[in-house]
Amino acid sequence: MRIDKYLSSVNLVKRRTIAQDMVKSGVVFINGVQAKPSKEVKVGDVIEIRYLKGTKEYRVLKIPTTKTIPKSAKDEYVEEIA
């Protein structure tokens, strides 16, 4: 699954267009490498998002098969590590 689609599917950002803008502006990294919008996410990858007020890191636990998941199921798909 593409990084921009993954970020919106697991509710890390509200909309996919916001996720696309974040990736294009260079604040999203996968395993320490700046991500491109078409970058595929795999189980075990570490996603780093560099916000203005700090950095958040997430580990991919599972890839969703549907467009969106319930917010209550977020912990099954992504784990916040920093």
Task: Report what the structure shows.
The protein is α+β, with helices and mostly antiparallel strands and 82 residues long. The model has no long low-confidence stretch (mean pLDDT 93). It contains 3 helices and 5 strands, in the order H-H-E-E-E-E-H-E. Helix 1 (3-9) crosses helix 2. The protein has helices at residues 3-9, 16-24, 74-77, and strands at 28-30, 33-34, 46-51, 54-60, 78-80. The relative contact order is 0.22. The protein has a single domain (3-80), classed as Structural Genomics Hypothetical 15.5 Kd Protein In mrcA-pckA Intergenic Region, Chain A. The longest helix is centred in the first third of the chain and has 9 residues, at 16-24. The protein has a 5-stranded antiparallel β-sheet with strand order 2-1-3-4-5. The termini are far apart. It comes from Hydrogenimonas cancrithermarum. Belongs to the RqcP family. Keywords: Protein biosynthesis, RNA-binding, rRNA-binding, tRNA-binding. Associates with stalled 50S ribosomal subunits. Binds to RqcH, 23S rRNA and the P-site tRNA. Does not require RqcH for association with 50S subunits.
